[in-house]
Amino acid sequence: MQNSCRLFVLTGVFIVSSVFCSNTLDAEPEKQGFDYSDFAEALKINVDDVGMVNYKKLKAEPQKLLAFVTELQNLDGKDFDKWGDNEKIAFWLNVYNALTLKAIIDNYPIKSSFFRSRIYPKNSIRQIVGVWDKIDFTVMGQKLTLGHIEHKILRVQFDEPRIHMAMVCAAMGCPPLRNEPYTGDKLQEQLDDQTRRFLANSAKFKIERADDRIYLSPIFKWFAEDFVRKFGPEKNIGRHDKEESAVLNFIASYLSKADKNYVLAGRFKIKYLKYDWSLNEQQAKK
Length: 286
Hints:
By secondary structure, the protein is mainly alpha-helical. The protein folds into three domains: 1-30, no CATH class; 37-199, no CATH class; 205-272, no CATH class. The chain is built from 13 helices and five strands. It has helices at residues 2-10, 14-25, 37-46, 55-60, 63-74, 77-80, 85-106, 146-157, 187-199, 219-222, 228-231, 242-252, 257-265, and strands at 137-139, 142-144, 205-208, 213-216, 269-272. The strands form two sheets. It has a three-stranded mixed beta sheet. β3 (205-208) and β4 (213-216) form a beta hairpin. α1 (2-10) runs antiparallel to α2, α3 runs antiparallel to α5 and α5 crosses α7. The longest helix is centred in the middle third of the chain and has 22 residues, at 85-106. The chain starts with a helix and ends in a 14-residue tail after the last strand. Mean pLDDT is 91; it is low at 1-31.
């Protein structure tokens, strides 16, 4: 090919030779991120606009979800290491949510135990023994649990507390499951949207001015420390401690001006709402 290029130059057709060499010899552009098409199809088919899942249908037709799970197993870690943080966070959020779906359909319909049913709903992920710390999944050739993905990867390797608005543990108390995958190029927009949707749900957050109380999802209690570094204010809000002040500062940034001013004034008590562990399942149409 080099001889052909030289021949064109000698005959005076330099511009043509340059184009010909470029088109022939240039390598394919390096692929960035990950192909989420199978997961996107699984979500589109089985998740509605409010984040409820048709587990019966997903159990009967799991092909797209299982294809995605297989792709997670085969991803080369060296390729993953080349991605930016947004791509990595999006990837692990999709991994967590996809593998949670798999854990549910592997045990669907969920069989409840007598003792667990005294504490949790019968149709709950909490009925699946070891779902977070015993059941292994393969990702990039490594055996990982859902708990490891959440507590050793997403919470530790990235300073992004909005992950708690995006990880979905198949419960009504969780954030809504998006019916699209997270992607690196849209991650910031998607996480902001998830946060607004979460805070718009009165079962997750509400202000009661008459009682001088703010009601919060227990997610903000369980993971309050994750908000401190990024959202901790210079001074604590009202009489609330460092962790609570960080959470309140985070929440305030997504509220209307009046609600934001009320929250930042801090003259209220915080009450934590009961977490609903019922399965986030679409109800059968009558």
